[in-house]
Amino acid sequence: MKLLRRALLVKWHYIEHELIDFAPVTFLTGKNAAGKSTILDAMQLVLLGDTAGHFFNKAANDGSRRTLKGYLRGEVGEDEGSGIINLRDGQFSSYIVLEFSEEGGDKPFCMGVVFDSSPDGSVEWRFFSLAEALPDFHFIRDGVPLDIKGLRTWGQMRKNRFEMFESNKRYQEVFLARMGNLNQKFHRLFRKAVPFSPIMDIAGFISEFVCDVKVHLDIDDMRENIRHYRQMEEELRVVESRVKALGEIDGTYHRVEAARDKVKLYEYLVDRAELTNKEEQVAAAKNEAHEMEQQRERIDGEIVANKQTQEQVTGERDVLVEERGNSDAYQRQQRLEPHKQRLEGEFNHIRRDGERHDGMLVDHAERWRATARKLEDTDTWWTSLEKGTSLDVGGVELKLFQSAHLYSEAIRSIREGLLQWPSPAGWQSHTLLDEEITVTTDMTALRNSAERLRQAAQQLAEGQMVMHDAVRAWDEESASLERAISELKRGIKQYDPKVVTLKRLIEDGLSATGQQMAETSTEVAVTRQSVAGESDVDKAATGKAALDRRSSEMSSRASGETSGVSIFAELLEIRNPVWQKAIEGYLHTQRFYLIVPPETFSQALRIYDEVKNSHHLSEVGLVDIDKVMAERPKALSGSLAEEIVTDNPYARAYADYLLGRVMKCDSVDELRNHRTSITQDGMLYHNYVARQINPARFATLYIGKQAIEHQLNQKTTRLERVQTLLQGFRPRLDLVAEWAAQSCPTLSELTAAEDFLQEFSRLSKLRGEYLAILDEMGRLDFTRVEEIGKEIARCDVLLKDMGHQMSELTKKQGALQAQYQRLVQQDIPGLEEEVRDKKHFISSRYDPLAAADMNSRYQQELKRLGSPQTVMANFGRQRSTEKNREEESREELVNQRSDYNKTFGAGFDILREDNDAYRAELTALQESGLTEYAAQIQDAKERAQMQFQEDFINKLRSNIDTVEQQIKALNSALREVSFGGRERYQFKVSPNSQYQPFYAMIMDEMLLEGRSLFSDAFMERHGSVIDELFRKIVDVDEDNQTVHSELEKNLHTFTDYRTYLDFDLVVRDEEGRESRLSRVIAKKSGGETQTPFYIAVLASFAQTYRIHQSGFNNTLRLMIFDEAYSKMDHQRIRDSINLVRDMGMQVILSAPTEKIADIVPLVDRTLVVQRIKSQTRVAPFEPDALEVN
């Protein structure tokens, strides 16, 4: 085995020159920040050959950002003016060298790295190896370390014992080889182990680090052979598909030809029938023209007779009109009629105005009576309102309750208005001759009523405004409550927005110059003090007690316990809930005061002063905690301060300051025993005055975890109340808005009413004039006038009838003439032309011999069907049917040809009328040798299947067997090891349930019995699984990028033996109960999670270092654990270290001084790391050395 013996560090952070000796089990300890992790980072850099520094300082401080440059130059802090402060500047060289040897100290060799740092900040390095022990001069000449060039010159004198590497990669390869041909996973495992942090993915860790089996199989040749026979199968399938497709094309072409012949016959029959039909139309048109000529002569005679009768009746009428015009009664009637019509028109105007007046009275009366009836139901609206209680936020419910009188006043106004409202006169049923038309409207009463209705509308509008404000306030409160409830459920208490705003503004203001600058300034000051002289350091070191106190203080600040801006109430818990109300009521607004660290108070106060006016911030307290703590407040026994629980020292001091002298009393009788005292329900006695604290002060609780539940219940109850109110008053608001929008009698309506009453006063006079005219007309004798009128009317009827007859005869005459002209001049010549064209069309379209045969068929069909129209209809349908059939077959043929060309890459003309090219292709394929090709395919398939079984399935099975054997060997070594005398650990490997069918197929015993993977028995059991596996890793279109990506994923999955297995670590307690670590690791305590980590890492190193492989185990044995055993008890630590010894491993453990008592007795060597001034020193363990830091 190969063991680490010594480590040389030159100019590395606080280390100037240190040579460190190591034993099989070495304990590295010291105070925090002394430099333990600095040493471990240096060692890792050489062990891993990694200068990127991703692993630097992981365990000591996860937030650290150490860099290689910072380590080399000794970066110690930052100064606001000068920037980064380094211990080293200019040109210098640094060394990290590790000396190893075989067990027993033989054959020492070194692996190391040299760095040249330049004044411009650049760094150059070279890794090197030395096949001998560390030289005594430690690569330092005259107090100056050799640079890269000097080291190379020195190394050249060592002949073949020194080698310098030009790249990190080459160094890493040589290092792994020198340490016993270690696997590349050594680097990953070492990085994982050093921070000593728990493993949450235990299965992944075991499969990656514990098992030593090649992960993926190379199946490219197998996949290629399978593709080859699959390609041959595909080629045969293509030929068979081509034969089938060409046969379908040939059949479709025959259907096209058959349909085409039928279409040609049916077209001839239709064309021949159309010719016969047109010849018959010519004969019918000529016969119709002859009939029209006879009808026109008959109508001319009727017109002459009608004109003679019209002239005779017109003469008789003229004589009667002249006799009536000479009558005295007729002339007097014509003079009286216009006056009578004028009076009737004026009355109709008054009646229309009266009807509008009646409509106005009825409309307003009905609407306001209905409103009054609905308003009577509002009495019950107000009973559920809170009036002036703490639940009435903003007094909204009180205001709404106080608006109830508006509704009763509105009812009273409506009733008073309707009491004097006039009744309608019913103008629709009146005429001018009616003597009793009563209009009761009094304009004064009408105006008073209108005013009272307007008052009602105003009262309702005012009530609407109050209710609208209430509903809007409840809507806003509901939204605010929902937000508050959501935040409370997430653990966020609800504070006054002014408090939250000021807290945020102060936090933002402090962020630029906050804690980080303060810590940097402190470190700069310490550094400068260190440089000033040793005497100052001696003054600062006041012994172990002072050091521990300062360390604790720094740790507290680092943890953030007293940093930032906090609300006083957020920092407190109350021990006994019965005193919650008394404490909250007494503190009142002081609960919400802001507490900042003492060093930031002045800056926070300036920020407060700057923003108070722009953000309207007042009454929010900012506690000067420095002054408070300066008074060293002490809480009296029995005071309220005893009920306050807090880890924050500032909150503790302020709570003692405020509550430390407020004494608790169980009854009011005890109050006078103290100067300041209080009972549980808030009765306060102070300065000889007793008063009850307002319960509103503690109606909402803010202190402690129970305050969130209290606020949540309070907000939820209030939200239910608000939603109930909204549910009740939102529809009521709509009603009130409708009532308030009710129209009142307008000024124009009142003016129209007044104008109507003035017009109505003229009605009596109009009636008198109208009666006088009727009386005078009644005294006239119209006997002869009426007789003459009847005779004139009779003549008018006769003349009208004869005029209508003459009009009809004239229309018929014109229409008949137009039809005759069109028939003779257009229709008959046109039809004769169509007959000639059709004859020419038939003779030119059809072959004479074929036409002769088809004409015989036409004569048969004409005789059978009886008319050319029937022939046209019958064969026209059949022609369309066959034409569609031909087109469908033709379209199908073109599609089949197109599909064939696309599918099989043919270049034939798909629109060609004949089918010669496709038929020739079919004949050639049918005569090819398909049977011999199928036999070749079967032979290739059997060879590929055999290769699939041997190169893939058998190798996967071998990998799984190997892993199970490796796990079994590790478990054998762990079987007798217990931790804490209680727990034992065993690795477990089992089939992955997700891939169980694949595992069962791979591990089936039938394959060991010599059965073929593709035998009937095996395929019956696992056929579907094999098919799925083929689809995953073989049957993929690799030209498709998306599918190709899926193939790569499947290959990565299914060629990896880990896919088919589950790994876990089983813990067995002293009672034999077992639990799988992967299921319970998140629930375990610190020691319970570190122990399985330790077991897993130890097993991984054992596998990596090949401890149990005789003849191959001359390997490195080193492990490094930073912050080791931080959560283990003494028994677990002892068992862990014993296990290291039992397995022949070398380990370096790093832990703070708190673990000295547990670890020192168990190790071979203890090294103490100390920071003295600006240097880190390493020395063997001496108890007194820990007193100085």
Protein architecture, described:
With 1189 residues, the protein is an alpha+beta fold. It folds into five domains: 261 residues, P-loop containing nucleotide triphosphate hydrolases (Rossmann fold, 3-Layer(aba) Sandwich), CATH 3.40.50; 227 residues, no CATH class; 199 residues, no CATH class; 206 residues, no CATH class; 171 residues, no CATH class. Helices cover 58% and strands 12% of the residues.
Q: How many domains?
A: 5
CATH class identity of the largest domain: Alpha Beta
**CATH superfamily (homologous) name of the largest domain:** P-loop containing nucleotide triphosphate hydrolases
Radius of gyration: 57 Å
Q: What's the number of extended β-strand segments? A: 28
Distance between the termini: 38 Å
**Principal-axis shape:** flat
Q: Helix count, per DSSP? A: 34
Structural class estimated from helices and strands: alpha+beta
Summarize the amount of helix as a percent range. 55-70%
User: What is the averaged pLDDT score?
Assistant: 83
Main sheet summary: 6 strands, antiparallel
Uncertain segments: 59-63, 524-528, 530-562, 1185-1189
Strand order of the biggest β-sheet: 2-1-6-7-8-11
| CATH fold type of the largest domain | Rossmann fold
Strand content is: 5-15%
How does CATH name the architecture of the largest domain? 3-Layer(aba) Sandwich
